[in-house]
Amino acid sequence: MEMEMTHEAKSRVFSRVLSRLENLVVKLKGKCVGIAKNIKKIAKDDPRRVIHSLKMALALTLVSLFYFVRPLYDGFGVSGMWAVLTVVVVFEFSVGATISKGINRGFATLTAGALGVGAQHLALLFGTKGEPIVLGFLVFLLAAMSTFTRFVPSIKRRYDYGVLIFILTFSLVAVSGYRVDVILVLAYQRLSTIIVGGATCMIVSVFICPVWAGEDLHNLIATNIENLANFMEGFGEDYFTIPENDMMSINSKKDGKAYLRSHKSVLASKTNEENLANFARWEPCHGQFRLHHPWKQYVKVGALSRQCAYHIETLCGFINTEVKASMEFRRKINDPCSRMSMESSKALRAMSSSIRKMGHPKQVMIHVENSKQAAQELENVLKTMLYGPELDIVIALVPDATVASILVNIITCVEKISEAVHELAKVAHFKEVVDATVSPETAKQPVKLHRGIVNPMYDDGGDRKEADYHVDVIVCDQKAQKVVIGGCTEGKVGVANSNECSNNVNNTSVVNPPPIIITCM
Amino acid sequence: MEMEMTHEAKSRVFSRVLSRLENLVVKLKGKCVGIAKNIKKIAKDDPRRVIHSLKMALALTLVSLFYFVRPLYDGFGVSGMWAVLTVVVVFEFSVGATISKGINRGFATLTAGALGVGAQHLALLFGTKGEPIVLGFLVFLLAAMSTFTRFVPSIKRRYDYGVLIFILTFSLVAVSGYRVDVILVLAYQRLSTIIVGGATCMIVSVFICPVWAGEDLHNLIATNIENLANFMEGFGEDYFTIPENDMMSINSKKDGKAYLRSHKSVLASKTNEENLANFARWEPCHGQFRLHHPWKQYVKVGALSRQCAYHIETLCGFINTEVKASMEFRRKINDPCSRMSMESSKALRAMSSSIRKMGHPKQVMIHVENSKQAAQELENVLKTMLYGPELDIVIALVPDATVASILVNIITCVEKISEAVHELAKVAHFKEVVDATVSPETAKQPVKLHRGIVNPMYDDGGDRKEADYHVDVIVCDQKAQKVVIGGCTEGKVGVANSNECSNNVNNTSVVNPPPIIITCM
């Protein structure tokens, strides 16, 4: 049968294979286009990335001359390797990071090399047999101590790479097993090639399209503040615009929600800001920035901006509330609230532009004062809105009502977390914890009698096995979420080791041994 | 005179030097004690740090055997160096990080080595002169391309170190200038020592007191949720406890504020969570965690917890409000609000313990439901509290009042940012930007006449120089914050190139060229 395959069948198979191949080609093409687009986007987002790649390649090609140029190779030999190694690991995106790593590497190599030679001298005193033991002990000791210092926050922040190179160089020099005179030549060669490699990195980094970490930090902080301003402006326009009819409100609201995401980047920029500030400290003066520019203050401004972003994040939760607001009330507070938004937006924008231009933030205080006046006005509006006993209630109500509203939002948030945790329990195959030996089957069959021994389970996860408690009958009423132990009637709860019954699961008095309370879901 | 120094003078000098020395010793002692305490604290905070340091030292001493043991040294020679180098850079705190770096290093060395040998073969075809040029070009090309791929987020997350080693190895092999047969022996030696180094790291990391990134992430998420629970519990007890007399309230409030900081760690744990999740993916199954444990879901739960922490941060702003709350109102909403706090705290605690024990979060839904019921009850309380037209006002007021309250807090926040920016302007020596050529001296002398040419300055920082505008007289009244141009009377503003005067600075119609508006501070 197979041999007698008709032409038709053959062509069908052929066309199927062809269509599959076509599919594959189309898919591959799509993927390639996707990757190309992604690469283009990455390059377009920050063209300095392309320049950085070319700079790195240039520095690497430059130090390769150690191998290509005969006189250099004759002078340094394989030590030229260290120049290549240095360039690869030291060259970083920003000038500050490159200088920080370069200086760290240089100093660490120097001190560790000297200490390593000292260790070899010391070990020689202990004879041929003692030498490797002493050296091994010294390597162990210094490696352990140095590794531990990397956990000290202040060292980790600035000298982490230096400590790493210190361990590396000390170990290499101490155990290399050469005679000391050879080691000195070798140390000279290595140190000089490392210095050449480091210098190449720094020169290329500083003089060809430099990327200054300090400037990046400066711009990041200004952009973050501007993002907050954008939110406040968008919010002021969107929330406090009273729609003339419902259709218009839906249209305008759909268009104007872009601002809702403008503060999100501020929420997540902490690590970035701190890294940039650490690198910026290593940079020489550049552009408008002096040597000891107060980078710490930028971090402080950044932290306060983040604080503001937290409040804004909460505010977002109230923009789409389903509760129909009273237009009467909204109209009353509209003017001061919208001015509060607008003036704080203006203040933030003025700060951002003042930082960008490095000019004194003169306009800022006017807008801050205006916004505070608007807040005062809001209070006045609330006061004049109602007279008599209601006045006190409404004024006093505002903070508590706010707390209550935020609480309601937190509850929504907790529910979301709980959904995510349930999802986690599902995908991570969390085991079914059956409360007090009530098996899932039992739970499904509401009224069922049991007789036996149960162990109490505690909320804290402890499994104290002091005693087993005898339980006569467990009746589990799933719907009422109530449990009956010890033969009590439905809806009541029994207390272990007793024949008492209680109406309330929560009210059972704590006896020793404690009562077994079984809840069903 | 100096020669005739009395005994008294001598002893006075001596005692002064002595006391200074004593001071120095005391200071040094104090500093040493401080450092010792700091080190002790770091070790005590996480004893695994000490163990890690010892493990690192052990691994390093083990690979040093390449030098100390004669047969090994004869076999591998200086290539033993690569084992030491590998251990120093690959050995990390957690198993996941170590494995990730080790595997990255191994694969990158293998592929880059092979490509390097290929590049040398290719370059040989171009003759003695062409060889270095072709090799240089290849190094440049691959270095640039590889460096750029490090900006692709997905590669950066998992293979950053591999790409680094790829560049390093390719450059070293390609430019090393050895004959190819020598290179193969060398490549074998290096690769095997790197594998030995990497394997040593992984074995020591996995089998001696392993630190699992996955377990750390698991515990971190559980701890974060527990911290939120602690806040909600503390808040519920603190805020909704109605003091019987003022003295008691002050005392109890001072003691019970520890919870106010419990959510702060959640706010800042994003980077840590993401790093741990990246490392956890590389770890083999351990303890309760399978190979493909859903680490991504942990990151998701973590992000939602952070969302909750944002709300809590805002809530903190309302705990110490100076507005005297109406006790009547507080008493009414007390029960539902306190139950909302308590039930969400219980729900969070149940989730945390469920994650810790890896058991199904059964209790959680009950508490979530309870908290939602309490929220419903709050609405009912508000509804029954007031009748008639006031009802609608109060119910409708709550969301808007909340928005207004948060706005007030944002304004406080903006003021703090503005203070920090002013501080920044001071310490960073921001230049005084004088608005529209009004010099600081002018601003200080309120009523002064000027005549000349001014250039308009724009808010966006642009310096459009289409035209200069002629201004006759500038009268600057500092107190009224109003500006007079063009000879208008005080309190009015002139429009450039015209003789019109306006009562309101903001109401001047925009003419082309635009009016010059000068504000004074």
UniProtKB/TrEMBL annotation, chains A, B:
Keyword Transport: yes
InterPro entries listed in its UniProt record: ALMT
GO CC annotation terms, alphabetical: plant-type vacuole membrane
Membrane topology: Multi-pass membrane protein
Compartment annotation: Membrane
Primary location class: membrane
Ranges annotated as spanning the membrane: 50-69, 75-95, 107-127, 133-152, 164-188, 194-213
UniProt entry keywords in alphabetical sequence: Ion channel, Ion transport, Membrane, Transmembrane, Transmembrane helix, Transport
A Pfam match: ALMT
A GO biological-process term: monoatomic ion transmembrane transport
Highest taxon of source: Eukaryota
Keyword Transmembrane helix part of the UniProt annotation: yes
Family the entry assigns: Belongs to the aromatic acid exporter (TC 2.A.85) family.
Name under which the protein is recorded: Aluminum-activated malate transporter 8
Organism: Spinacia oleracea
Gene designation: LOC110794795
